[in-house]
Each structure stands twice: as C-alpha cells, then as structure tokens.
Amino acid sequence: MSLPSATVRELADHVLRAQLDAAPIPMLTNSHGALSVDDGYAVQNALRQRYLDAGHRLFGWKAGLTSRAKMRQMGVDQPSVGFITDRMSVPQGTAVRVADHVHPRVECEIAFVLARDLPTDGCTTDDVLSATAFVVPAIEIIDSRFENFRFDLPSVIADNSSSARFVLGGNGRRLDSISSRTTLGVALVKNGEVMATGASAAVLGDPAASVALVANLVGALGCRIEAGMTVLSGGITAAFAVQPGDVVSARFQELGVVDVRFT
Ligand code: 0L1
Ligand code: MG
Known about the structure:
Blueprint: H1 5-21, H2 37-53, E1 58-64, H3 68-74, E2 80-85, E3 95-96, E4 105-114, H4 125-131, E5 132-142, H5 153-158, E6 163-168, E7 185-190, E8 193-199, H6 207-220, E9 230-232, E10 240-241, E11 247-252, E12 256-262
Parallel strand pairs: 1-9, 3-12
Antiparallel strand pairs: 1-2, 4-5, 4-9, 4-10, 5-6, 7-8, 7-11, 11-12
Helix pairs in contact: 1-2, 4-6
The structure holds hexanedioic acid and magnesium ion.
Hexanedioic acid binds at residues 62, 64-65, 70, 74, 140, 142, 144, 156, 161-162, 235, 239.
C-alpha cells in the first residue's frame, strides 16, 4: 500500500530539515515500518520539488549503491538513484565544510555529460554511448542523514541516495578516445595515502550500463535525463569518511585527477 500524500510531504520535510541542518535522524522505517522502495521514491520526488521550489536547478542524476563494494558496505542488494542540483556542485579547489554535513564520505566516480536526451524506458548501454558528449573524473561527497550512517533501501532512497556534493574534474574525454571504459583504473588518495584502488567495471560491469539503469529508474519516476545533464555513474570503491584538513584526490587512468579539500 502506498503512503498517503500527506505522509509523503511530512517525510520529505523531515529529511529536508535533516539535510539543511546537518542533523541526524533515525532511519524512516523506524517510525514507518511498512515504507517500501516506491514510497522512498515518492518522498525523494517531493524532496526534489522542495529544492527546485527553493531555486536549485536540476543538474542531473546519480547512481547509488552500484558496486558490490558499496552494497556490501551498506548492507543493501540493489542500486538506487538520486538527483543532483547546481548548488551541490563544488568547483575544484574550493573547500568543503565538514560541519555542513552529518558524516560526509568520499568516493570516486566517472561522470557522464549528455549531448542528447536518454530514453526513459528500455534505455540500453548503446543508447548511453551514443548520447554521451564526454566523461569527466568526479568525486562524490555523500552524506547519509541517518544516525550512524545506518539505513535500509527505502530510507536511503528517501534521503536522495545520500547525495550531498560533487566535484567534477576539468578535462572531458570522449568515450571513443578511451582505450577501455570498463577497465579504467582509479586510486582514491587521502592526505597522500592510497585508501583504495579499483577499476570502472566495479560499477555494474560497465559505468555506461549504470547510466542506462539510472535513465530507466528516472523514467519510472516520471522524469527524463536530458541533453546537458550530468550523471554520476556510481562509486568504484568503497566510500571513505573525511575530517577537516583532509585533502582527497581521485586519480584516474586516462581521465586525470580531480581533488577536493575539507575544512
Ligand atoms: O553514491 C552512493 O553510492 C551512495 C548511495 C547511498 C548509500 C550510501 O550512503 O553509502
Ligand atoms: Mg556515489
């Protein structure tokens, strides 16, 4: 049974307040035990509308929980999607305030910038390849608003798949200029120490397949990934907590480096 619309609105306001105040809340299923994945997306839709009403521009979408490492780390068994807005974007070289978040973590991703709209139903990897203008290296800063970073799938979806900020690297590369988009290596480096290494196949076997999945999930929400939008295709490694003073970089084979520092 789906949630009454008044409850959807109430939960969206509850999550929004936690996001804006960086104040942790219990996962939603503690108070709404029957919350389903569809209910989680209904809350996320209402949350997105709150941000758009406040003047944010929809910048694109993200895949969440796409690697085995992430699913294992968070104890869930399927990917999710979330939205990203222009005001979540952090220019390289700008510092991110840890205090604006509950318990931020970083992960390295490949971001796809679209030249054409993607289908909303039956989108395939080939559709993504032909619609992509270029890819760039990215760091996603995720922040679950749930106490102790503990949640289940409906709750994390309602919390916009833990979206918080993202940093895009400068040099876009056309996909056909990359030797292999599925075996692209990356090292996540924090304060000079390599925290994790991985290859792009960690994201559902192919990050372009992940973008196709996002397009279909976004289509089921009644939205479309449009030309000009950016899609974060999913974390390649596990995510790592950050503290004030940390400097993090994602060093990608062929795509180059993207970095961010925390105060
Ligand atoms: O981008 C992600 O994979 C995050 C999805 C939500 C799960 C988490 O907060 O780790
Ligand atoms: Mg991510």
